[in-house]
Amino acid sequence: MKKIIVWCLVILSLTALLLRFSGAWTQIFFGVKQTSGLSIYSLPSEAAVFLDEKEVGKTPYEDKNLDTRQYTVKIQKDQASWSGKVKLSPGTVTVIYRDIASDSASSAGETLTLDKGKGITVISNPSEADVEIDGKISGKTPLTLDLDAGEHTVLVSHTNYLRRSIRANLPNNFNLTVSVDLALSEADLTVVATPAITQTPEVTVLQTPTGFLRVRDKPSLNGKEVAQVKPGDILALLEDQGSWDRVRLPNGIEGFVSSAFVEKKKQ
To answer: Which residue, among 123, 125, 142, 122, has the nearest Cα to 133 in the 3D structure?
Structure first.
């Protein structure tokens, strides 16, 4: 009887080790299948999402039960689209944010992935972009550096391109890779065959109960704050989404503000 108990304990110990340290072995011996997640957000929203040429839903899209492998992702709405390859890591969620457009020069966005390790890696298109992390100049892309776990703000900028501000949470024992595509600034879009714009629509920030207006990363009160603007500030209006307006600040940061606290300037 004692021998049986001892063997049972040995087997349980081996099982625990396999489950803890070896994803491949757990799938082979115990049928435990490792999965990954994918979240996709786009502007404009309600864009069709394709995984390996199969339509799976619309943005905002999320699936946390995907096979751990590389996928071809495509996001499309009307004539605007983006596509790229994304490799999912086991037990993590990869996040894609895209501003989709009919021409590549106006398209921008970022992909956030996690792998076992430590710190942060920032890559960009174009390369040699300036990187600020939590308000401190960190270098130029491609860039890899140690970073403590927690929430961080990454600002990527390049001459003649619109900057991108990204907020992300870095878990313990993981490396966060931020892959950023920058869009050409309006001053350099003359090389693209698009209709001429005589004047960019603008909005003026109205008085608020708090004395300032929050700029969020998505059109929702649950969106993270990326900046604050004051009554009287003038913002570029990028898109009217009803109760929310997508705007660009004078420093290039883009986000969403409540349309109840801004007034559209007459053209």
So the answer is: 122
Q: What is the pLDDT of residue 50?
A: 96
CB-facing half-sphere around the CA of 262: CA atoms within 13 A:
28
pTM over 0.85: no
Pull the structure tokens for residue 158.
């390049």
d(CA 102, CA 26): 45
* pLDDT value of residue 14: 36
Q: How far apart are CA 77 and CA 45, in angstroms?
A: 8
Q: How far is CA 181 from CA 76, 172, 187, 189, in A?
A: 17, 26, 18, 16
Identify the three-state secondary structure at position 135: coil
pLDDT in tens, 49-79: 999 999 999 999 999 999 999 999 999 998 8
pLDDT at 31 over 50: no
Residue 45 CB neighbour total at 10 angstroms: 14
- Greater confidence (29 vs 180) lies with 180
Per cent of the chain over pLDDT 70 is 81
Cis bond before residue 126 (omega within 30° of 0) = yes
The residues pairing with 98 across neighbouring beta strands, listed in sequence order, are 42, 109
Distance from the Cα of residue 7 to its chain's centroid: 49
CA-closest candidate to residue 254, choices 217, 203, 204: 217
How far is Cα 257 from Cα 219, in angstroms, rounded to an integer?
A: 7
Query: Cβ(29)–Cβ(18) under 8 Å?
Result: yes
Half-sphere exposure for 102 (CA within 13 Å, toward CB): 6
